[in-house]
Amino acid sequence: MPKQQRSTIELPRGTLDLTYQTNLATDQNITTENYQLEDLLGFAQRINPKRAFLFVSKVLGRHIPVAPSTMRQAFTNLANLIPSNLSEPILVVGMAETAVGLSAGVHQALQTRYPNALLLNSTRHAQHSDVDSDILLTTFSEDHSHASQHLIYQSADSKTQAQLLACKTLIMVDDEASTGNTCVNVVTALRHAGLTQLEQVHLTTLVDWSLGQNQEADDTIAQHLPNIDFYRHHLLSGTWQWTEAANPEPIIMPSVDTTEAGSQSLGDSGNWGRFPTLDSVGGFADYLASFQTAFSDFSGSEGFDKAQLPQRILVLGSNEFVWLPFLLAEWLENNISSNDATHTVNFSALTRSPIALGGVVKTMLSFNDHYGLGMTNFVYNVEPKDWDLIVLCIETSPDSIDELWQDLDNVLVVSPKI
């Protein structure tokens, strides 16, 4: 039994007391690293009246730039916790926007054992001005989130759709969990949408905050999900207690809770799970070629030469579009920095999530979103001057980005055809 540890985190709006333990793989044929709290998490203050604190992942590449190899290791280690001999068909579902890259990484690792597993991420981006009934599978709510409403799309391919509806095992991937309420909402919505064959649900998270209340929480889940076996898998588990500071300053959360389509059209950004897919990496070869062409134009060279790439490169995904950008960052790391210690490649992402400065959030840039939703977007812990090249990966047209990015001469925008 892992030893329980304790930590106290002081934040501007209160105190966070943690009790936690590290977890090892349940499958003895697969080894998984023993992560410590400081390996996985930092802490910051949310700009959100629903919850004043934020667990900031150090392995997701979302709010803290991180090496792609660190992300890949976390993806694989988390996938290794999921047991073998699961009932098939299998569906991996990721939560927008934070966990859509995590889910794709877990899915890719799982396909070494389950090559026919499907990937399907939730999204907050409608594909049209009105959400079309012919592509929308279902909706659900993530009640504590800054943007609570989620959409889940179905497949236009009849074979893929039939496999989706026949799934017996659901692997729900998120960065963290506590009560499991969101999982209940997801599974309930999917069952009502036609996934009536589900037998097992595996809530798979980097951190699970239900330590000490697992049985109570799982009993509640069992009441809401009859005839389904429920399991949890995580790299670290714990429980938290929040004590609010006396007379905290009032906060106003920006308006970011929308599932509307923006005024900017979405280009073809690959099969990363916004629609059900078996192959989340099939579009990467074309995406890499697009980057190489864009870099050649950016650098003024005749063709792509990786020897011309600068030493410090930051690849930025954007909102839900992070999987192909991550694969690009990983390719750069494997082809450049792995053979030259003077080169650095990190990955991070733009987000709609509002976070206050403090804790592990050292810097914040805010700007207009490039989807044409009229909302503020952010990027954290990124100082543009610290990077020789910032590769900004978007799924809209290049001219959709805010002037902040257009005015920086070290920013290369990679955009799909619209």
Structure write-up:
- The chain has a domain of 131 residues.
- 22% of the residues lie in helices and 28% in strands.
- It is built from 9 helices and 18 strands.
- The strands form 5 sheets. Strands 1-2-11-10-9-5-6 form a 7-stranded mixed sheet, sandwiched between helices. The chain has a 4-stranded parallel sheet with strand order 13-12-17-18, covered by helices on one side. It has a 3-stranded antiparallel sheet with strand order 4-3-14.
- Strand 3 and strand 4 form a beta hairpin.
- Helix 2 packs across helix 3.
- The chain starts with a strand and ends with a strand.
- The relative contact order is 0.16.
- The model has no long low-confidence stretch (mean pLDDT 88).
Task: Give a topology summary.
Blueprint lengths: L4 E7 L2 E9 L14 H4 E6 L6 E5 L10 H13 L9 E5 L5 H11 L7 E4 L14 E6 L7 E5 L4 H8 L3 E9 L3 H12 L7 E9 L5 H11 L4 E16 L39 H16 L12 E7 L4 H13 L8 E7 L4 E2 L7 E5 L7 E5 L8 E5 L9 H4 L4 E4 L4
Helix pairs in contact: 2-3
Q: Care to give the gist of this entry?
A:
This protein has 418 residues and is α/β, with parallel strands linked by helices. Helix content is 22%, strand content 28%. The strands form 5 sheets. A 7-stranded mixed sheet has the order 1-2-11-10-9-5-6, with helices on both faces. The protein has a 4-stranded parallel sheet with strand order 13-12-17-18, with helices on one face.
